[in-house]
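Now for a specimen:

…
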Amino acid sequence: MSVTVCVRHGGAENKGRSDDGDRSDRAVNRERARAWGRELQHVHHTLRQRMDLLRGKIDADAPRDEFALELGLFCIGFCVALNGHHRAEDGELFPRILAEHPDLVPVVEHLRQDHELLSMLLADLESVARTATADELTRHLDGVEAIMDSHFGYEERQLVAVLDAMTTQDVDVGRMFGVD
């Protein structure tokens, strides 16, 4: 499963102008940077939707064999998408942020710790996805979702404004956010 996204680069809709009509490289880069903040929020929104879909696959009244394989495959896909997003942040996004904002080391360290915790929770979820009861799966999802929502909220509060202010030109947004 991949999280597919669309990002408006350099103000394509307004033919290379910023919102105030400025055609300079700085204005176009500022628009691109604002897209990065929106991109982070969009990826988080998409992953939350995937969690909702995953929860919808769990039917406590259905016989286990009716949804076990589909749920297992969907769960593995969700785990791959979320872990891929976090690996991209750790390897691409965070180093760029820290290069411009070394004062954010404590924020990035907190986010990396969340990534490790979520990775462990996802591994647990993946290991039981095909065999657990609906109640057991729901408990696992509750744990993942609680940490995921807290993490996404903190990350957005701490980094969207930073991303909005970045003007780096040589960025592959897909690599930076772990999407294709």
In short: The CA atoms of residues 22 and 127 lie 53 Å apart.
